[in-house]
Amino acid sequence: MSYRAFVTGIGGFAGSHLAEALLRANNHVEGTVRPGGSSIHIGNLPALVTVHPCDVRSSEGLADAVRKAKPDVVYHLAATTSVSEGEADPNGTMEVNLTGTLHLLEALRKESPGALLVHISSSEVYGKVLPEENPIREDQPEAPLHAYGLSKLLSEQLVRFYERRHGISAIILRPFNHIGPRQSDRFVCASFVKQLVSMELGRTRPVLRVGNLDPVRDFTDVRDMVEAYRLAAEHCETGSLYNIASGQGTSIADLLSQMLSLTDSQIEVREDPNRVRKTEIPVLIGDATSFTEKTGWQRSFALRETLRDTAAYWRQTIADQPRA
Hints:
By secondary structure, the chain is of the alpha/beta class.
């Protein structure tokens, strides 16, 4: 089926990949990009995607964008997504992730009450679970450890309130870690790959700076992740909540080892205290059985393929930058 899709944060890492997935499925696609924010990730889609310059912190701007787009399905991706950024600026994180969600819900209530909302939350709402509690199912109690996780849990509660009070139709998704081309180097995988490629291209010394390598995470290619978002809108009932995850755990040390195997360069790995988080969840692996049974979703990208494609992205990005 085809429909009018509206993606908040369409210029971002996941948002740009989602726009491409929606276009491949013959949907009409519009979305928001924060004024002054980069649209480089959707630069190859100008004739196919309608972009509304809009900050989700602006209730009037968001309502105007929704009014013009007339969406059937809304994917809410616009957010502050970094745990460290949330720790540094909890007020800003709450303003974007919580107040921004409120503004979107109000815009839908007033301008497009019949639209389906696919609300993208986060596995960080679960907080510090015990290793034996993994893989995590949707009935795991939520206990976020930081401002980002808390903001996402509160945004879920806002969505549920608007369902009860105003009849908004919504599906909540809790994606676990997703990686791939276009991800910011604020995140561990992109950080490692960017550093390695910079060394490979002779831009930096062969010293790779890392934080804690012990945590175990559940990594899914962003292209598989956004396909799950699209399938959720087509197959899941309103009022439902699902984890999106591979169900496989990979330690940061193993992730780094796979990256190092892709280069012939001699690299020194050095721990950087500034990269070690104050609060770290040791193991976070998701159980997406309910979602896969409902939608038939399967991963199509192996981890090694994701890492190769991410490296190719950073080679091109760095090669296009002038030397310092």
